[in-house]
Backbone:
């Protein structure tokens, strides 16, 4: 079935992504260590590289993602998946060439350019979410979207766990990271071939049209198309994404410095622990759904989980403390898929792709401002309190709870009204 096909692509692509992330992290560390005179200047070089790298990726993605999402909503549902996979394949091949040919680190800024011009993760994940949403009823949508995120997380866990060991494998003729980066490129190539020749989504357009026709008949409860709810969900989602993305981006540099000072194997393990959160979050959604908790309540639980864990991260000085802090964020990945599920219930089936891309791009635009702010705050507090950025993330998470709680109150007030179907 289509759902099984898309799950295979999600799994394979995320293993490839995990390989790439660890390879890039270690290549950047090695190059910056070679060119730096002390640990502080090395940290500043690493965070400056990632700041530029991430901002290029976020900025360039915007226009291509919007255009290609519109194409997807016109019935060409494979386009928002295949085009980003082309970008992934070509850009990841560039890292492999950079390692083999020993090009300067600045050449790697072309990676987010290529990736972004093909729509990037914003378009790819919106395309996946649109397919999943079109195949599910409103009642079970949160669970199905979370299940896709679970596959994404398990793949990330397996890939991250293996990546540190694979990075260290080399022979006299093969440099550090060549095997890991090469496997990433190969897996993306297999995903691309699978998406082009095996993935079948044609019947989903008809399903989406049928759902839309069904929705257009009879009296629709006003809450189902509530613009205020859409705005509040966007605001809550953006604030939470700023908190998570800002904290996690700084964490990538934080673990490479004293007192943690991780190598490739520990970086892989650390990334794997981040991926376990997909499993615990999925179990959380499953249990909370059976307990008949509303979507808004599940989002709040996830936000409290992340806020407490990232706050504790500010005071981490040993590796066991790091893993203890991560364990507090067990349900941190519940909010975003559940926000997407709630959003899909406010718009028509033929607008899923565009709505999901708009959500992803709003995250990117917001982080264009917050990424450099986080980076500069981290750099300026390196000697005094490097964990201050994590307290900042915890604060943003608490703020994101406000619009979500308002949506919960509004939905509860309207819950007495049922949708009435026409003849």
Residues:
């Amino acid at each position: 079935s289509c759902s099984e096909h898309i799950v295979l692509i999600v799994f394979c692509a995320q293993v490839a992504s995990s390989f790439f992330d660890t390879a890039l992290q270690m290549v950047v560390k090695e190059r910056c260590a070679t060119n730096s005179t002390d640990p502080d200047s090395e940290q500043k070089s690493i965070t400056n590289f990632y700041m530029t790298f991430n901002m290029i990726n976020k900025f360039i993605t915007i226009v291509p993602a919007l255009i290609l999402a519109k194409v997807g909503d016109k019935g060409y549902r494979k386009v928002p998946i295949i085009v980003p996979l082309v970008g992934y394949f070509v850009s990841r091949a560039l890292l492999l060439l950079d390692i083999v040919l020993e090009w300067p680190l600045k050449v790697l800024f072309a990676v987010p350019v290529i990736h972004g011009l093909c729509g990037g993760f914003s378009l790819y994940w919106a395309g996946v979410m649109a397919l999943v949403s079109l195949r599910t009823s409103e009642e079970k949508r949160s669970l199905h979207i979370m299940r896709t995120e679970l596959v994404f997380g398990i793949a990330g866990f397996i890939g991250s766990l293996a990546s540190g060991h694979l990075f260290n494998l080399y022979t006299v003729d093969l440099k550090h990271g060549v095997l890991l980066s090469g496997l990433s490129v190969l897996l993306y190539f297999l995903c691309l071939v699978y998406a082009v020749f095996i993935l079948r989504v044609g019947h989903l357009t008809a399903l989406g049209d049928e759902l839309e026709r069904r929705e257009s008949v009879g009296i629709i409860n006003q809450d189902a198309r509530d613009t205020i709810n859409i705005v509040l969900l966007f605001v809550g989602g953006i604030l939470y994404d700023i908190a998570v993305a800002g904290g996690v981006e700084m964490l990538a540099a934080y673990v490479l410095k004293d007192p943690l000072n991780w190598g490739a194997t520990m970086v892989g393990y650390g990334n794997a622990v981040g991926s376990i959160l997909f499993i615990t979050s999925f179990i959380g959604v499953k249990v909370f759904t059976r307990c008949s908790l509303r979507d808004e309540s599940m989002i709040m639980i996830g936000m409290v989980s992340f806020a407490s864990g990232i706050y504790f991260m500010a005071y981490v000085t040993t590796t066991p403390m790091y893993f203890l802090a991560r364990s507090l964020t067990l349900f941190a990945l519940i909010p975003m898929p559940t926000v997407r599920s709630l959003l899909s219930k406010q718009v028509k089936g033929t607008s899923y792709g565009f709505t999901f891309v708009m959500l992803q791009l709003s995250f990117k635009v917001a982080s264009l401002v917050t990424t450099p702010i986080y980076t500069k705050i981290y750099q300026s507090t390196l000697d005094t309190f490097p964990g201050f950025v994590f307290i900042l993330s915890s604060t943003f998470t608490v703020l994101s709870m406000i619009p979500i709680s308002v949506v919960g109150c509004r939905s509860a007030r309207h819950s007495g009204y049922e949708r009435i179907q026409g003849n």
Summary: The chain has a mean pLDDT of 87. The first helix runs from residue 2 to 35. The chain has 15 helices and no strands. Residues 218 and 423 are 7 Å apart (CA to CA).
